[in-house]
Amino acid sequence: MASSIATPIYDVAIVGLGPVGAIFANLLAKAGLRIAVVERVVDIYDKPRAITLDHEALRVLQAIGLGDFMEQAIAPHNGSHYLGVDGEIIKIFDPMPPPFPLGWIPNVTFVQPDVEQALRDKLAEYPHADVLLAAAGVALQQDENAVTLTARRESGEEFLIRARYLVGCDGANSFVRKRLGIGLEDLAFDEWWMVVDTLTSEPAKRPSRSFQYCWPSRPGTFVPGPRNLRRWEIKLLPGEDPDLAGVPDNVVKLLKGFTDISDLTIWRSAVYRFHALLGGRWRDRRVLLMGDAVHQTPPFLGQGLCAGIRDAVNLAWKLRLVLRGDADDALLDSYEIERKPHVRAVVASAKEFGKIIGELDPEAATERDVRLRADLKAGKAETIRQKFIPDLVSGLIARDADLAGRLFVQPHVRAPDGRTCRLDDLLKPEFAIVAMAAEPMAWLSETSCAAWRHLAGERVVITASGESTDANGILTVVERDGLFADWMRQHGAAAVIVRPDRYVFGAAGGAGELNMLVEQLLQNLSAGR
Hints:
The model has no long low-confidence stretch (mean pLDDT 95). 31% of the residues lie in helices and 28% in strands. The strands form four sheets. Strands 1, 2, 8, 9, 10, 11, 17 and 18 form an eight-stranded mixed sheet that branches. An eight-stranded mixed sheet has the order 6-5-13-14-15-12-16-19, with helices on both faces. The chain has 15 helices and 27 strands. By secondary structure, the chain is α+β, with helices and mostly antiparallel strands. Helix 2 runs parallel beside helix 5 and helix 2 packs parallel to helix 9 (304-323). The radius of gyration is 24 Å and the shape is globular.
């Protein structure tokens, strides 16, 4: 008996099967890890939550095999107009023009329950992924080898799950975070808003872009979703009771303040407290936190769920490398080092936009309108939403190298079998050395080559013309739009080392630099041994 307790059954246990937990579980299961997921409720949550995703999130959904599904499930987010006190434009977000750097429309809308169902269906395809619904975590213990989770079914029956690592994806009221005694830093944003999802019988009735109603009398937001979904987010005013605000008659009354509702059926509504919070620690030895369990952002940049998806893709490959022996356990510390400042920056921007939209003082709102209109007229206002999403600034990157911490582009390419697809569809979720020509591959020393093979790293050449081939351990593909070539030339790079999560470790201009980067990467992965 003692020996079975000493041997963890699972590689990773996950608490929570919301969208972040489901994406994380899929990433791990696709990589062949043995996982267990515990989720309190059986059914997918039926209240309005996320409605926007960005191209980073779509790239992750592509990585788990849902690219074709997402193509059908999304609609372009056609930008936002911020309207001032007089109803005229004070600020604009425009869609990013093509070619799209990550191979996807940079901002889209989607219907969350549909995507969650697709994530669960995909996860069910893996025999080594055990999903345990209607079971809640009640206790947690860890030793130097594993974590033991005590879970309780609705019947009251308790059972144990033992895993090498455990990750809490269990939302704002996280059992895992509370059990670890990890506090939340308050980033000073706290407002009550009502979210109303409606279905229209006249899809062409309203413009296809979002509006931010920056009205002190009643701030609000309009977001057109896919197909016939139309959403309004409406701020509650001081003194309004959040419990009473959500009653059906009041929902109708508030909605009528923004639109003619004759074509609308209210699908669902909820009153939420919009917070800005950041977990003090993201890791306690073998237990880690992600998503709303460790950070919460106001929704004014559409980045709440995107932030959780970034957590999932950041941690998944690191756990995989540690579990298979290619990296020291210390690599997992880079998860918080990389993600925490990123989240802090995104929350700061979301708060700024929230303040613009939600200003209740008429005098301050009029001053705001004058200032923002002047910025817009002078060309000083940033109008591309993605510019507010930062790069990585520390962690597992070659900080002094060009392009370190930037997202790697994803061109459409011709595969060796003749089809055209997004680049990532031809790559494994491993490190990759990517170049514009075959020559930089010959720069690798014997030591670098051997180390790269040991790491299961890929070698990829992306050219403007010629044949697409997969030979001698090098994948050569022809790109469609010149996206990669332009990007490399712009930065004076001959080759880049790309991480499994598609952030750039570093770029090299010559042979010495490339071999140095390979050596630096290997040292960083084994640091702590």
